Amino acid sequence: MTPLQQGPTCAWCGRDIDSTGRGRPRKYCSQACRQRAYEQRNNVSGTQIPASAVILTPERAEQLKDSLFELRCAAEDIATAVDGGEDPDEVRALCEELVAMARKIEKLRS
Ligand SMILES: [Zn+2]
Predict the structure, then answer these.
(1) pTM surpassing 0.90?
(2) How confident is the model at residue 99 (pLDDT cuts 50, 70, 90)?
């Protein structure tokens, strides 16, 4: 099972950042993400919108809602499997699927 602790993730896209390097931990996974964060800071400066706001198009918000619905269905499938006395290996496989889905959803801006 995937460990629960979370390594450093990009402040823009949420992807994992390799933390192998020494020195100050990086905030962004790439120059592109750093740039997009910089652009947003400029675009929202002088407005009430926080510089770190996650701004989504309505389409993307809709996709996210769909993904969360799928995630809920996957969790309900696991509950059903457990209630039905399903084989632990099968339950574990369903859990791993759920974790993979959640990890994808965590990347809000991708
Ligand atoms: Zn990134």
Answers:
(1) no
(2) very high
How close is the Cα of 19 to the center of ligand 1, in Å?
A: 14
- 3-state DSSP: the chain helix, strand, coil percent, rounded to 5? 55, 0, 45
92 alpha-carbon distance from chain centroid: 21
d(C-alpha 32, C-alpha 88), whole Å: 43
CA 54 to chain centre: 12
Residues 52-90 as b or e (16 or more Cβ within 10 Å = b): eeeeeeeeeeeeeeeeeeeeeebeeebeebeeeebeeee
> 30: CA distance to ligand 1 center in Å?
6
